[in-house]
Amino acid sequence: MAKFRRRTCIILSLFILLVFSLMMGLKMLRPNKATFGDPFGLDLLPEVRQRTPHLEKNFDSQKNDKINSEINIKNLKSIEITMKPSKASEPYSEEQPPLNYNLHVFYYSWYGNPQFDGEYMHWNHPILKHWNPKISKNYPQGKHKPPDDIGSSFYPELGSYSSRDPSVIETHMKQIYSASIGVLALSWYPPSSHDENGESTDDLVPAILDKAHKYNLKVTFHIEPYYNRDDQSMYKNIKYIIDKYGNHPAFYRYKTKTGNALPMFYVYDSYITKPEQWANLLTVSGSQSIRNSPYDGLFIALLVEDKHKYDILQGGFDGIYTYFATNGFTYGSSYENWAKLKLFCDHFKLIFIPSVGPGYIDTSIRPWNAQNTRNRINGKYYETALRAALQTHPSVISITSFNEWHEGTQIEKAIPKRTTSTVYLDYRPHKPSLYLELTRKWSGIYSKERATYALDQ
Fold first, then answer.
1. What does the DSSP assignment read for 180-191?
2. Of residues 295, 348, 299, 349, the one with CA closest to residue 321
3. Is the bond preceding residue 429 a cis peptide, omega within 30 degrees?
4. Quick one: three-class SS letters along 343-412?
5. Who has the most CB within 10 Å: 74, 144, 391, 435?
6. Which domains occur in the chain, in start order?
7. 1-29 pLDDT per residue, tens
8. Is residue 405 within 8 Å of residue 121, measured between CB atoms?
9. What is the pLDDT of residues 142-153, one digit of tens each?
10. Are the C-beta atoms of 359 and 374 separated by less than 8 Å?
11. Residue 264: which residues within 8 A CB-CB, separation 6 or more?
């Protein structure tokens, strides 16, 4: 009997031990929270995690935003939604790679708002008419009405800002610096001139130079086609720029193969002036020649058509650039022609500067021009352009643009925004800094590759 009781106690103890083990095992498998936690994997995707509250509040709205992320929608009947942060997002915290002074970005300082300028400028851009009246009558007329209705298919993180706002200039220089771009090519009109939608901005140049210098950036000049631009007025312009700004530490000079460090000037729409007039300014024997003088420099002409390259040679230019961010739109902007253009430039000792961009859409100001829209494809279009440019082994690459919002070529930060009449495009599912980050990545690639082929050249 005693033996039986002993066996029963042993069996009972083993059974209790087994039950206890099972309970402990189940406790370990149980989640820490009684309620549902984050969906699986969101801890690894902070961008998605930050957006999950919007899904709870308005799933249909977010679904529509996703569907329409690559097109504008007019006459949308919905509540106005603006997803604009209270201040500009912070620059990158990780280690900043060196600036690439062979990477230039086109920069525009023509934007205005009532706070700094007394009125809106450029954000209220007129809707341009098609040259064919029969086509033009099928599209809207008038001007945009900021701050919610602006002349752009995207909406800036900084809102409808003024280029005169010191905090805006500071933020822009931070963004350019964060992208490892070394040089900004400033859109420039002479002091007495301006574009048809703005005011003179030459008085802003000192502030831009000062802020650029703070971030070790350099500034070159992108001379616009002002009224009556010719060899004589250009001589005065170059003398004015070099005399007034040439001694500033942020004033850009390009070191040539001969060891000279010369100012560089991009000349937009150079082809509208006859090559004979350019030759007066840019050849040694010209009547207005700046060659071998304190005002000598490197003058880069815009090539649109193939035939322009011979006019550029005759005019005495030092190089060509292609400006447009629309592959296939012009001969110069088509990637397939860049290798031939580079060979031409090499043969005649010209600088070839291909222009790359993140995409193109100008239908907010040219609603009839949808055929020239180039979809960004979440950055793939931009990376394809950069890869094509690098294949030509260029001395300089230019980016169209930092902030040409009218044509949708900007790499500046943009945010999602919806009004009762418009859904603006944005960079989702990526952050507003997507194109700055891509630029920084390719700036490093370009620096390494250029170091290699520059030795061979």
1. TEEEEEEEE--T
2. 299
3. yes
4. HHHHHCCCEEECEECCCECCCCCCCCCHHHCECCHHHHHHHHHHHHHHCCCCCCEEECCCCCHHHCCCCC
5. 435
6. 100-454 (3.20.20.80)
7. 454 456 665 666 666 666 555 554 443 33
8. no
9. 999 999 999 999
10. yes
11. 220, 252, 253, 254, 297, 298, 299, 300
Question: What are the start-end ranges of the E strands in 179-303?
Answer: 181-188, 218-223, 253-255, 261-267, 298-302
Query: From CA 167, how far away is CA 181, in angstroms rounded?
Result: 20
Task: Return the structure tokens found at 291.
Answer: 């060659």
Contact 405, 363 (CB under 8 A): no
Of 154, 289, 160, 169, whose CA–CA distance to 234 is shortest?
A: 289
Token pair listed for 60: 């249909």
The predicted model scores a pTM of 0.80
Q: Could you give the CA distance from residue 157 to residue 161 in angstroms, rounded to a whole number?
A: 9
Tokens of 411: 């790499």
CB count within 10 Å of CB 340 equals 13
